[in-house]
Every structure is written in C-alpha cells, then in structure tokens.
Design brief:
The chain contains 4 helices and 5 strands, in the order ααββββαβα. The protein is α+β, with helices and mostly antiparallel strands and about 150 residues long. GO terms for molecular function: nucleic acid binding.
C-alpha cells in the first residue's frame, strides 16, 4: 500500500526500495501480504508417476492432467484449477477461485466426473506440490476408478 501511495504521488519506487526505506526510518506496516506458495512437504500419499513424462494419449479420457495456478487480474489474485485431456488438449472442467482452498479442487473434480462415461478410467496426473493433492482428491480418484 505504501508503494502504491508513493506511485499515486508520482514517485516511481520499487516495493523492495520502499520496504528498505521504511526499515531505515523505523516504520513498519501492520500486515505484509505474502505471495501464495503451495505446501512443499509431503501431503497425503504420493502416487506413482504413471505417465513417466509421456504426455500424449491415443484416445480421449486416457490421460488427464491437473494443476493449480495463481495469477492477477485487475489487481486481485485468482486461482485456476483445470483438468485437461492429453488426447486433444481439451479442458474437461475447471474452477476459478479467489483463494486456493480444497473446495476449489472438489468442485473441479466433481464437474469433470459428471462428464466422464462410466466405463472410462483415465490416469489423472497432478503436480504433487500444489493444492490439488488432498485427501479429497485421492479419495475421489480411488472411489471412481481414476488412477
């Protein structure tokens, strides 16, 4: 906010420079918003990497991939969690949220499963260091036959 206030007054200063100057003057902000970083430890169980970097598929619903990503739009952070079919790059389902909560992934998985034919059981690959890896995610995969 201080950096924004400086810019509004015509001073073009980097955020790090503003923090350095504030520290030198003994001024501190009440809250410093930290960039979102997904959990880096082992969360739940880590599944075998069945894709082994083979990101091509011979038929629809053979291989799905998912990941969560953060981006800014109109000055606000948004989190996108899609599922993509590697056969044709089609986005099967997605969810957009203002916070990276498990419910974001739950909604996305539920929407994807509604479109999946009963006899299809794709391999679902998720980056193991993001919000997608959760108890709900693994439970849904196990119950529905997703590998």
């Amino acid at each position: 906010m201080v950096t924004d206030a400086c810019r509004n007054e015509g001073f073009l200063l980097n955020g790090k420079t503003v923090r350095k100057l504030m520290k030198e003057l003994g001024i501190s902000s009440l809250i410093r918003v930290k960039k979102y970083r997904s959990y880096k430890g082992e969360q739940g169980r880590i599944c075998d990497n069945l894709l082994k970097r083979q990101f091509d598929a011979e038929r629809p619903n053979e291989k799905w991939v998912t990941d969560a990503t953060e981006f800014k739009m109109n000055g606000k952070k948004l989190y996108l969690s899609p599922i993509m079919d590697l056969y044709n790059g089609e986005i099967i389902a997605y969810n957009l949220a203002t916070r990276p909560l498990p419910s974001m992934v739950q909604t996305m998985l539920t929407d994807a499963l509604k479109q999946l034919p009963k006899d299809e059981h794709p391999i679902l690959r998720s980056d193991s260091n993001n919000a997608d890896v959760s108890f709900y995610h693994h439970s849904v995969c196990r119950l529905t036959g997703l590998v």
